[in-house]
Amino acid sequence: MVSVADFKKLALSFDEASELPHFEKTSFRVNKKIFATLDITAQKTALKFTEIEQSVFCAFDKNIIYPVPGAWGKKGYTYVELKKVRKDMLKDALTVSYCNVAPKKLAEKYKQH
């Protein structure tokens, strides 16, 4: 389980990450691009993956990580249940999402070789 406070700390640990409102949710951005949104009430986050990354993460447990319903999910957007996910898995997922939107120079620091 990951608390909202721990999630925010993880999301803001990436270089140049910022926290801003996004409709009724909170967004986490790099270079003005969203890499995560946080729904505090539902205690879940939405991350931006490629379709392949989404299929890999969702294969772990569809009760913990699953596509956002509808068109957004088909584009790779994926929910992660904070009450159920292990912190190390969330960190990996956040890193992938961050690298998908961060400028190349920033993403290189976090990409696993």
Task: Kindly list the characteristics that best describe this protein.
Aspartate Aminotransferase, domain 1; alpha+beta; 113 residues; globular; single chain
Summarize the SSE layout with pairings.
Elements: H1 4-11, E1 17-22, E2 25-30, E3 33-39, E4 44-48, H2 51-58, E5 65-67, H3 71-74, E6 77-81, H4 87-101, H5 104-110
Antiparallel strand pairs: 1-2, 2-3, 3-4, 4-6, 5-6
Helix pairs in contact: 4-5
Protein model, in words:
By secondary structure, the chain is α+β, with helices and mostly antiparallel strands. It has one domain: Aspartate Aminotransferase, domain 1 (Alpha-Beta Complex), CATH 3.90.1150. It has five helices and six strands; from the N terminus they run H-E-E-E-E-H-E-H-E-H-H. The chain has helices at residues 4-11, 51-58, 71-74, 87-101, 104-110, and strands spanning 17-22, 25-30, 33-39, 44-48, 65-67, 77-81. It has a six-stranded antiparallel sheet. The longest helix is centred in the C-terminal third of the chain and has 15 residues, at 87-101. It is globular.
Shape: globular
CATH architecture designation: Alpha-Beta Complex
Secondary structure tally, helices: 5
Count of domains: 1
CATH topology assignment: Aspartate Aminotransferase, domain 1
Task: Summarize the biggest pleated sheet.
Answer: 6 strands, antiparallel
List SSEs in N-to-C order: HEEEEHEHEHH
Largest beta sheet: strand ordering: 1-2-3-4-6-5
Rg value: 13 Å
- End-to-end separation in angstroms reads 28 Å
